[in-house]
# Entry
Amino acid sequence: MGNKLDETCRRIRADIERNRLWGRRLAGYRAMADDLGVCRQTVQRALDVLEAEGVLERLHGSGTFALTPSEQDLRSRVRSLAVIVNAHALSRLSRVAIAAILDGLAFRARSAGIAVRTLEWDDPESRAELADTRAMRRVDGFVFVRFMRHDVVDELMRLRRRPVVVVDQDCQNMPVTVVNDETFPGARSLVRHLLGLGHRRVAFLDIDDRARWNSCKFAGYAAALKDFGVAEDPRLIVAPRASVSAAQEDLDREVDHAVERLLGLPDPPTALFAYDDRRALAAMASLRRRGVEPGRDMAVAGFGDTAVRGGFCDDLTSCRIPFRKMGELAVRAALQPPFAAGRQGTVFVQDRTVARASTMGPGALGRVRKQFNRQQNGKTKKQGVLHEEERVLLGSSV
# Structure
């Protein structure tokens, strides 16, 4: 078995060099196994070996790529990464996202033979280690996860010319590499999903200080309304006075007030899109206290898909952020060559809408039918459109 594995590794290396595949995606397991005349398990083990040697890299959901000689040389000199997090002050759902990012980061680093040292910002010993210039000079790269301090980044960048990587955190006017999700198209897709179900009164549960945190979600919301020819109603845009890191009790209270205002409108919304899953869950609880069942009486959607992944809720429609892939790409970004001073690099991952019962419960079909009929002034001519809506609702409710 050892000889067969060594021979498979040798042939893959030779194929990369002969066909000049550096920087290109390699064939899949099955095609490679057929070409080499071995089983897929042998191919997988050979790729494990070659990835550990820095010959190639595998990206979750993207494939296997042959590294260029310069990338191989650079990676052979990178043996350790320091990962800085500040999870103590964050919500439970935020910690779900951080855990997924760290999982992807650890997997990619392990595959590349890189040691990872995780430092908690709220831990005095970790903070002292970060301030130790001599200790940090022994680290080959730095990754901040959902946290960033300008003064710390400045100090670390003076130690290294390699990019400092910031994951899932907006960062302006800093020469770092940012790994983030494509929030605007994600929000746009989710709101289009709601509009496609027939909703025309879609509320947006925004965040306090939108300009500071993430204006792209609102921009995606507004763009989706425009796509469907729906006028933006300022009364449907509410921003509870609660920051990203607000205590749960404060958030619940502020979201409850926002839901109360929305339901008190002469023409209340039939759907609600929340800035994140945390606000969506608070809105669902507020609606239930008022006898309004999410999914049956009002559609509710969040952003991030941390509620389901964390086991806090099974039926919340959300825009899923691929946190694990962000962690993998953070390691890749930390291994890149230095770039021009003052320049910021950006790596984006694509979000996707995951529809569940909170937007497609039993009462949703009847609500869509009534709204559709109202918009048609009592006419029932477009039965084909209604049948399509029924198919989408019933087919996606599980």
User: Anything to note?
Assistant: The radius of gyration is 25 Å. The domain at 183-321+353-396 is CATH 3.40.50.2300 (Rossmann fold). The chain is about 50% helix and 15% strand. The longest strand covers residues 80-85.
